[in-house]
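Record type: monomer structure entry
Structure origin: computed from sequence
Chain ID: A
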Amino acid sequence: MKSLCVSLCKLRASVVNIETETMAGVQTLLSEKFGDAVKRTVFRDNVRYVVPVDRLIDVMTVLKGAGFDYLADLAGIDYLNYPDATDRYGVVYALANTDTAERVYVKVLVNDPDPVVPSVYPLWKGADWMEREVYDMYGVRFTGHPDLRRILMPEEFTSFPLRKDYPLRGRGERHNFAPVTRAES
């Protein structure tokens, strides 16, 4: 039993070593290609890159070529009333390397009145519904998306319910829509 534990510990140490080397290689690659335009931060072993919106597709293409072949998640954030926040919205991409199990997070920041981010749909087809959800809930538009329309809210809905300035009880929109019964759904 002790030899199994020692073997597992050695295996874990070698995996951590490989991950550290690979992540250092990604950092070097991004630094060489983009210089100071891409800011790197680490929080609880999660490597994050803050990227200018006009360089997003270039950075994502490089990361995909570096082995981050899976878009695991795409999320929106509203930074309204956050302490020290200088931008209103963030769009965060969680990328995974399916060979090494590494993850990288890429964030772009946009502002009102017209929050727009280029679509990563051409790189990852799985971005389709995720981008639509961020658009539907936060109002961030994705240029180049093949079918950017509401996915959760009715087409007639004019607000974006996950924005921090949206009232918790809504704005009376529920009265404008006919109830849907279980039999109809």
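Annotation 1: Helices lie at 2-34, 56-65, 127-138.
Annotation 2: The chain has one domain: 36-171.
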